[in-house]
Amino acid sequence: MKNILITLLAIPTIILGQTPQNILELGLEEINEYLFTEYALNKNTQPLSEIATDDFMLIAAPGMIENKDRVINGVKNLNISSLNVSVDKLITTDNVGIVIGILEMKGTIMNNPIPGKIRYSSTFIKKDGNWRLISRTMTPIRLKR
Fold first, then answer.
1. Mean pLDDT of all residues belonging to the chain
2. Which stretches does DSSP call E strand in the chain?
3. In this structure, what DSSP letter does residue 61 have?
4. What is the pLDDT of residues 64-104, one digit of tens each?
5. Which residues make beta-bridge pairs with 138?
6. Contact indicator for 118, 138 with CB cutoff of 8 Å
7. d(Cα 136, Cα 66) in Å, to the nearest integer?
8. Among residues of the chain, what percentage have pLDDT more than 90?
9. In the structure, what pLDDT confidence band is assigned to residue 115 with cuts at 50, 70 and 90?
């Protein structure tokens, strides 16, 4: 409940007029959610371009490995109508942060339905005092039969 309340309170601030420097000053959970929301829901790739390291890698659901440029260019294949980001675990050290949770989206990717729930893990490193996204994995959660 606390995570939902924090998210609801943070969204108006996050969405309205954040510059890349303001974004970098947010906490890891907020940066993580902002990146998902801007990219998938709003098709805004600038935050990902600014926050992800040049060597950023995504392991996508079917096991494909995509670099930063491919991920940014792939936004055109998304048609997302709603998005919810939850956090199950936050792990941090001085220079590494890992956010693990579930991403729920409604919509399509390349005209195919998006799985209802996707388990993600976002790994950030601290560079020059700011959190930078270095890798992310995304795996559909299969329903129990």
1. 85
2. 52-59, 65-67, 78-92, 96-109, 112-113, 117-127, 130-140
3. T
4. 999 999 999 999 999 999 999 999 999 999 999 999 999 99
5. 120
6. yes
7. 10
8. 67
9. confident
Length reported for the chain: 145
Helical axes 2-15 vs 28-36, angle rounded to 10°? 60
Residue type, 93: T
What is the predicted pLDDT for the residue at 22? 64
Angstrom distance (rounded) from CA 85 to CA 64: 22
Unique residue bearing structure tokens 């997302």: 80
Please tell me the distance from the alpha carbon of residue 61 to that of residue 102, in angstroms, as a whole number. 13
Alpha-carbon gap, residue 130 to 53, rounded angstroms: 11
User: Is residue 124 within 8 Å of 100, Cβ to Cβ?
Assistant: no
Alpha helices in 37-139 (DSSP H): 46-51, 68-73
| 31 CB neighbour count, 10 Å cutoff | 24
**Cβ neighbour number for residue 13 with a 10 Å cutoff:** 12
